[in-house]
From TrEMBL:
<feature type="transmembrane region" description="Helical">
    <location>
        <begin position="14"/>
        <end position="34"/>
    </location>
</feature>
<dbReference type="InterPro" id="IPR002797">
    <property type="entry name" value="Polysacc_synth"/>
</dbReference>
<feature type="transmembrane region" description="Helical">
    <location>
        <begin position="94"/>
        <end position="114"/>
    </location>
</feature>
<dbReference type="InterPro" id="IPR050833">
    <property type="entry name" value="Poly_Biosynth_Transport"/>
</dbReference>
<feature type="transmembrane region" description="Helical">
    <location>
        <begin position="46"/>
        <end position="63"/>
    </location>
</feature>
<feature type="transmembrane region" description="Helical">
    <location>
        <begin position="120"/>
        <end position="137"/>
    </location>
</feature>
<keyword id="KW-0812">Transmembrane</keyword>
<feature type="transmembrane region" description="Helical">
    <location>
        <begin position="299"/>
        <end position="325"/>
    </location>
</feature>
<feature type="transmembrane region" description="Helical">
    <location>
        <begin position="337"/>
        <end position="356"/>
    </location>
</feature>
<dbReference type="GO" id="GO:0005886">
    <property type="term" value="C:plasma membrane"/>
</dbReference>
<feature type="transmembrane region" description="Helical">
    <location>
        <begin position="401"/>
        <end position="420"/>
    </location>
</feature>
<protein>
    <submittedName>
        <fullName>Oligosaccharide flippase family protein</fullName>
    </submittedName>
</protein>
<feature type="transmembrane region" description="Helical">
    <location>
        <begin position="377"/>
        <end position="395"/>
    </location>
</feature>
<keyword id="KW-0472">Membrane</keyword>
<feature type="transmembrane region" description="Helical">
    <location>
        <begin position="182"/>
        <end position="199"/>
    </location>
</feature>
<keyword id="KW-1133">Transmembrane helix</keyword>
<feature type="transmembrane region" description="Helical">
    <location>
        <begin position="158"/>
        <end position="176"/>
    </location>
</feature>
Amino acid sequence: MLGKIKNIGKEKNLSSLMANVSVAFLGLLSFMLLTRQLSKELFGEWVLFITLATFVDLLRFGLTRTSSVRLLSGADNQKQKNILGSTFRINLKLLGILTVLCWGAHVALLIFNLEINNGYRLFLFYYPFLAFSNLSWNNAMSLFQAEQNFKRMMVVRISNVGLFCLFLLLNQWWLHLGLVEIIWVNIAVNAVSGIWCTLKSWDGFFYLRHAKKTIQKELINFGKYSMGTLISSSLLKSSDTFIIGMSPILGSAGIAMYAIPLKLTDLLGIPLHSFAMTAYPRMSKKSIEGDLSGVKKIFYSYVGIITLLFFPVAMVSFVFAEYLVLFLGGNEYLDSLPLLTLIFRVFTVYIMLLPIDRFTGVLLDSINRPKLNLYKVLVMTSANIILNVLAVFVFQSLVAVAVGTVLFTLMGIFLGFYFLKKEIQIQSKQIVLESVLFLKNLKTHLG
C-alpha cells in the first residue's frame, strides 16, 4: 500500500501541486487579514460578494474551459489562434449579458427601494468590473492547462492573489481602508494579471479576428453538457452562504461566523482534490481497458487509505477546534467562540465522510457514467438547499446548517454506492478490508 502512496506522489505534477498550495496559503493569509480588518457585518458582506463572484466566474469559464483545453491540446499555431480568439469572443459576449443583468437588477432595487443584504448589492454593482478585470487571465488558464504549463499558471495566479495579500498587509499596518476600497483593489490586482496575459498574447484578445463561428459553436456544444454538474456542484458549496445571507436574523454577521469553520474545512479538502485528480486517469484507463476488477481495486485502495489519513486529521481538528477557530478568526470572534467551535466539530464528521463521497463521484465518471454522477449531485444539491432553508428560516441556527452538510453528504454516499452496486457491483465492506490490511502490514510498508 505504501508503494501505491509513493506512486501517487510520483504521478502528481509538482508544479500543479505547488500552484494549488501557494494560492491556498495566500488565500488563507488574506482571509485572516480580512477578519481582523473588517467588522463581522462587513466581513460577512465581503464573503457573500466574493462567494457570488466565484460562483458566477466558475459558470462563465466553465462553459468554455474544458472544451477549449480539449481543442488546444496538440493544436498547431494557427488553430491555437482560432480557438483562443473564439473563446475570448464567447466570454466577451457572456460578460456583456452579465453586465446588463447585474446593473439592471441593481437599478431595479434602487427604483423599488427593496431591502436586501448589502453583500448582494455589492455584487450587483461591482461584479461587472471584476468580471472585466479577470477575463484575460482566466481565459489564459485554458492555454496553460492544455500546454501543462503549471509553472506559468502558478505565477499568473500568485501575481493577483499575492498583490492582494500584500495590499492587505499594508492596509493592516498603515492604510486602514474600508470594504469598498478593498473591493476596488481586488479588481485592480486582477486587472494587472489580465493586462500581463494580454501583452503576452496568452488570452486570445489579439486573436479576436481569428475567431470562427464553427469553433465557437463547437466550444459551446461541448461545454454545455458539463454545465449541469458544474452548476449543481457549485451550488452545493455556495448555497449555505447565499441562504444565510437572505436571513434577516442571521444576515451578514451569520455569514462571517459560518465562513471561519467553513474555511478550515475547505483547506482540508485541498489534498483530497489532488488525490482525486490522480485517481481519475488511473481508474479511467482501467475502465477503457475493460479491467473492472482493477478499477474497483484502485477505488478501494484510495478510499481506504485516504479515509485513514483523514481520520487523525479530523480527530486533531475536533480536539483543537477552539484554538484553530480563534487562530483563523482573531479576537473579533472571541464572543462567538463556543458556537464556532461546535460548528467546526460538526464539520469534522463531514471531513471523515468526504473521501468516500468524492471518490464515488470520481468512479462514476471513470466508468463513463457522468449522467449518474449528475443525478447524485443534483439530489445532494436539492437536499442541501431544503436543509439550509429549514436551518436558517425555521431553526435560525448555524449549527443546523452544518448538520445539514453532514446529512446531504451521507445521502450522496448512499446514492453513489447504490449506482455503483448496480453498475459494477461495488462492495463497501472491501474498503474496510483494504484499510485493515494496510494497518496490519504498516510495519512492513514502513520497513
